[in-house]
Amino acid sequence: MDAALILYAVIAAGLVIWLRSILGTRHGDERERPNPFTAPPPEKNPAANRAVKPNEEVTTLALTDTIAPALPRGVSISNEAVSREIFEVARSMPDFDLARFAQGAQDAFAIIVEAFAVGDRDTLKNLLEPQVYTAFDGALKQREAAGETMTSEIHAVRKMDILEARKDSKSVYIKMRIIADETCVIKNKDGAVISGDPDRITEMNDIWTFSKPLKSRDPMWYLHETRDGDVTEDHKTPVPDAG
Fold first, then answer.
1. If you average pLDDT over residues 111-122, what whole number do you get?
2. Nearest alpha carbon to residue 104 among 60, 59, 38
């Protein structure tokens, strides 16, 4: 074999190894977005492992004879009646983990709001029930017909209050009030701002309900219903009422 060809082959092989070390490899089953309702490994879950400081208030819920893990910071249960409702839900779903659900709902909230802003229908289809997706898709079509564009960023979910937990013969539903800091800007077809301020943080106050089939082993919950909370602020992301 020609010495030059051998040299080129060695160089090519070296480049392949270098590129894999830098970029990694894909196996065809990667997901662009992780399932927000799948908890990270325990060693990477700060809410499950952080030490509780003296005099710090921690919301817990006795779902069995043991105390459930501390809920993520800012998450609360509205009253004792709702605690009992959650207990009944947990009896129907042995794998139900309230802390994991609450963290997943926070993550799903940010993903859904930001996907709606940019018109990411694929992400919305994966996280919304059909009737909710239909409402979101209708709002996107109206925005597109007007030539408007929207950017939204959820800076932080400040508070999540679980308002209701119920079930029927097929599914479980958990309703919550979500209060978040966000920035939302809407521009018209000419690029002029018609709503919002990129330098202003506004409060988003919404009431969302998530659902999951009772017999499903998939950890995923789906957005079942949306509506504005009791306090509505101008220039927040105009998530449609749906459900």
1. 97
2. 38
What is the three-class DSSP state of 40?
Answer: coil
Contact, 223 vs 210, CB < 8 A?
A: yes
Domains and CATH numbers, the chain: 33-43+57-228 (3.10.450.240)
Give me the phi and psi of 215, to 5 degrees please. -95, 5
Ramachandran assignment for 196, one of left (phi > 0), alpha (psi -120 to 50 degrees), beta (any other): left
**What is the rounded CA–CA span in Å between residue 197 and residue 40?**
35
d(CA 159, CA 176): 10
Give per-residue pLDDT as tens, 19-78: 343 333 333 333 356 688 876 544 434 333 333 343 444 344 444 433 345 788 899 999
pLDDT in tens, 158-187: 999 999 999 999 999 999 999 999 999 999
Residues 165, 83: Cα–Cα separation, whole Å: 8
User: What's the rounded Cα separation, in Å, for the pair 85 and 174?
Assistant: 10
